[in-house]
Amino acid sequence: MHDEQVVPLVERWRARGGDVTTDFRPSGGHTSDWATRAVLLDAVDRLAEGRPIDVDRYRDDPAYAGRLTTPPVTHRLRRAASLTRKRVLAAVGR
User: How many CB atoms lie within 10 A of CB 35?
Assistant: First the structure.
């Protein structure tokens, strides 16, 4: 997804003179724990007003901080079962 959507958008934006700041994380993304409602609303307001987005503030100001969430137990169990199945099948050579 990143290489298919984000990279071409960044390249096109820069080619037209736009400035791009990235904040890559090992997990998450749009609508993730790191892209909070406060961050998205502030970014949209700033863009609409022609002001720059304050990436450093989003990263450091507690008002924009995300919080880690834990997937429901059912999702975690399903994922664990799927990984176990894959490992067992790989071990028996299938």
Answer: 18
Alpha carbon distance 42, 40 (integer Å)? 6
Structural domain includes residue 8: yes
Position 23 in a domain? yes
| Distance set, CA 8 to CA 1, 11, 15 (Å) | 11, 5, 10
pTM above 0.70, yes or no: no
| Domain of 63, in residue numbers | 2-69
How do the pLDDT tens digits run along the chain, 94 residues long? 567 777 787 788 788 777 877 766 666 655 566 677 888 888 888 888 888 888 888 878 888 877 655 677 888 888 889 999 999 998 888 7
Is residue 91 domain-resident?
no
Domain count, the chain: 1
